[in-house]
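thought: user wants a sequence for this fold. calling inverse folding tool.
action: design(structure=
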């Protein structure tokens, strides 16, 4: 019975399986299942596309935010250059217009985000404020004096001026825009992370859907081979679509990777590490963008999967770790900025922390360059302030004042010391042509009024000096130096004025001294004439009559009378020699002969020939070699060398033959220790060394003075003028001479003559 039942059941099952109706039902069910799985896969791919579009949309919003932020900063930079006087164009208006276009685009992009829409409205208000400030700048620039001027090499800023205050307001508006920018970027970074997670999830489900479609297709193929075979073309088309979708998915994934690589911000995702009591003890890097390599120097692959505190333990001390825990627990966005040291380099890092999925996402921004720019700007402001203070003090010390005089309407801006020069308190009255003219000395009004005739062809003020009347100090002499410029298309004279009263008085005193000196020189000229003619004429007659008396009655004279006549003759000879030396000394400064090339070797050789008799009688030896060729007056250089050589022979030791060594070398002026005016880079150092009687070192400077003798005329002949003449000749040649000696050990006369 059971066997019969089983057989009948099997027959019915075979009949059911072999029935066409069964295959039709199975085919319908298979098609329905296939359509369902395909639709699921299609929806999954669409979700993946939407997720990729959202990521692209977020990137476009971020780009627009950064672009808008740069417009705010560009307006601030233009206004700063305008404050320094380096920007005169209407570039700010163009930038504000571009800022409005960026705001419109950002408003369109954030229509799906109410929070971002509110921030866009705030940025629009800030943009309107900047536009008002710039429009006001255009009006004020036509009516107000600039708040910064350039005097010589310095820039002076009026910190109470409209431009400076307006620049401060614009800087404040820009700072507010940067805060809003950071908030918006943080919001978009949060959306970026969440959308990437969704994209990752979708990218995982899509291949699963594709696998399900493939399995379903395989089942249908096994169940209804014939029906599926007939629909082979349709299946291939479906598979082709699935392949295309998978390829698009891979391209989207590569695109997102490229986006993260191109971002300068470090985007990192962390998951908390909990202890047994569910307390957060650390965070693990689940993901970080490759920008972290540039900021920290660590490899991206080494960081992902590692512990935060192991990699960067400094976050415990600077408070970042505590804020990350707070963000994970409360879900509130946290911001943090601190200084980090990576590979020995200090960097400022600004962090924005948001909670996402099962962890937190941190966007780190390297603000080192921003901080450095802020420090440089602060330093620049401090330097400008210091320079302004120094300039004011310098004006006060130097007795000068500065001015900016508008030639079209006569208005002016002058420094505080300008007022003080006039004998009034700073800013005690408004300076104009008419108000200032009241201070000008009546006889000099016409000179002052010529200032208004300055034009660009002249290039500088034609007014140089005039007088003013002050209440306390009477009449003052002023010296004005101005230059024509154009400021905002207005003709302007810019320059300085100096109180030269003391200088004028000194000039008058110098003129009086010059007249006295001129009279004194005339008297000296008269003395020279007397010395050269009137004094020498009686001496010649005395010598002539002494000579006749000696010729006629010398033998009949007593010995005592002959001795007296000898002394008279000697005194007359010394008197004549003294007069001639004085004339030679007084005439050195009047010599205006042209300098020539002189060979010192040839000069000394000529002197040896002239003094040959004296050299032979005293058995003197003179040694020299490779003396230089110098520039000078030939006969004066010859006189100089003759005097020095004769002096060495004259003051030789009685029992030792005179020995004179002449040497030279080229030296740099920095190597010369002697103190004199060194106008040449190189000098010839020429030394005359002898083995004579020498002198005490304390007399080294006295021997060059007129009539200074270290020995009596009975011991050594001479007038005491020879070395004075040497000094005059060396000074005439822009050089210097000094003596070195020690009693009983000889003397050395050192001469420095310029190479050029």
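)
observation: tool returned 756 residues.
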């Amino acid at each position: 019975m059971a066997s019969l039942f089983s057989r009948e059941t099997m027959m019915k099952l075979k009949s059911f399986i072999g029935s066409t109706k069964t295959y039709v039902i199975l085919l319908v069910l298979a098609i329905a299942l296939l359509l369902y799985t395909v639709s699921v896969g299609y929806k999954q791919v669409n979700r993946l596309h939407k997720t990729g579009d959202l990521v692209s949309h977020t990137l476009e919003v971020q780009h627009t935010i950064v672009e808008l932020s740069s417009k705010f900063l560009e307006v601030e930079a233009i206004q700063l250059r305008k404050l320094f006087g380096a920007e005169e164009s209407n570039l700010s208006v163009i930038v504000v217009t571009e800022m409005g276009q960026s705001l419109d685009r950002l408003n369109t992009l954030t229509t799906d985000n109410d929070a971002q829409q509110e921030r866009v409205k705030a940025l629009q208000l800030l943009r309107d404020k900047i536009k008002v400030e710039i429009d006001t700048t255009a009006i004020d620039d036509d009516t107000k004096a600039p708040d910064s001027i350039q005097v010589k090499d310095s820039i002076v800023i009026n910190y109470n001026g409209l431009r400076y205050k307006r620049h401060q307001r614009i800087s404040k508006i820009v700072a507010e825009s940067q805060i809003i920018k950071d908030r918006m970027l943080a919001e978009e970074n949060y959306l970026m992370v969440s959308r990437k997670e969704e994209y990752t999830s979708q990218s995982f489900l899509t291949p699963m859907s594709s696998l399900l479609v493939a399995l379903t297709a395989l089942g249908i193929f096994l169940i209804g081979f014939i029906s599926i075979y007939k629909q082979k073309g349709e299946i291939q088309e479906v598979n082709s679509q699935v392949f295309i979708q998978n390829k698009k998915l891979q391209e989207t994934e590569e695109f997102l990777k490229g986006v993260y690589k191109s971002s300068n911000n470090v985007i990192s995702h962390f998951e908390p590490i909990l202890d047994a009591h569910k307390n957060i003890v650390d965070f693990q890097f689940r993901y970080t963008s490759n920008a972290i390599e540039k900021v920290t120097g660590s490899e991206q692959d080494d960081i992902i999967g590692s512990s935060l505190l192991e990699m960067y333990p400094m976050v415990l001390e600077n408070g970042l770790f505590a804020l990350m825990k707070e963000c994970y627990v409360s879900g509130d966005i946290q911001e943090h900025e601190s200084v980090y040291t990576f590979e020995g380099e200090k960097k400022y890092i600004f962090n924005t922390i948001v909670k996402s999925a099962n962890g937190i996402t941190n966007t780190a921004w390297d603000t080192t360059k921003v901080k450095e720019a802020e420090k440089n700007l602060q330093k620049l402001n401090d330097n400008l302030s210091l320079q302004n203070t120094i300039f004011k003090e310098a004006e006060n010390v130097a007795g000068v004042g500065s001015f900016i005089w508008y030639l079209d309407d006569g208005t002016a801006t002058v420094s505080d010391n300008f007022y003080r020069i006039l004998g009034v308190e700073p800013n005690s009255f408004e300076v104009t042509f008419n108000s200032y003219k009241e201070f000008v000395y009546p006889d000099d009004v016409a000179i002052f009024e010529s200032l208004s005739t300055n034009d660009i062809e002249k290039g500088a003020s034609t007014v140089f000096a005039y007088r003013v009347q002050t209440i306390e100090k009477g009449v003052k002499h002023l010296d004005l130096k101005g230059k024509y410029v154009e400021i905002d298309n207005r003709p302007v004279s810019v320059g300085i004025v100096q109180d030269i009263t003391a200088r004028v008085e000194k000039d008058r005193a110098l003129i009086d001294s010059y007249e006295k000196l001129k009279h004194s020189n005339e008297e000296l000229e008269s003395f020279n004439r007397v010395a050269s003619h009137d004094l020498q004429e009686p001496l010649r007659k005395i010598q002539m009559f002494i000579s006749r008396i000696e010729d006629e009655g010398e033998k009949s004279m007593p010995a005592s009378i002959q001795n007296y006549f000898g002394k008279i003759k000697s005194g007359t000879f010394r008197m004549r020699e003294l007069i001639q030396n004085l004339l030679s000394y007084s005439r050195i400064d009047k010599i205006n002969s042209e300098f020539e090339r002189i060979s010192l070797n040839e000069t000394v050789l000529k002197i040896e020939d002239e003094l040959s008799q004296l050299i032979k009688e005293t058995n003197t030896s003179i040694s020299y070699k490779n003396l230089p060729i110098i520039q000078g007056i030939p006969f004066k250089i010859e006189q100089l060398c003759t005097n020095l050589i004769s002096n060495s022979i004259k003051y030789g030791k009685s029992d030792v033959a005179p020995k004179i060594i002449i040497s030279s070398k080229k030296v740099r002026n920095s190597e010369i220790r002697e103190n004199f005016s060194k106008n040449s880079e190189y000098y010839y150092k020429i030394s005359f060394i002898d083995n004579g009687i020498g002198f005490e070192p304390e007399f080294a400077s006295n021997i060059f003075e007129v009539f200074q003798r270290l020995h009596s005329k009975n011991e050594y002949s001479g007038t005491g003028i020879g070395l004075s003449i040497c000094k005059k000749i060396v000074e005439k040649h822009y050089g210097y001479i000094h003596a070195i000696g020690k009693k009983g050990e000889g003397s050395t006369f050192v001469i420095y003559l310029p190479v050029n």
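thought: summarizing for user.
answer: Here is the designed sequence. Residues 1-137+158-262 form one domain.
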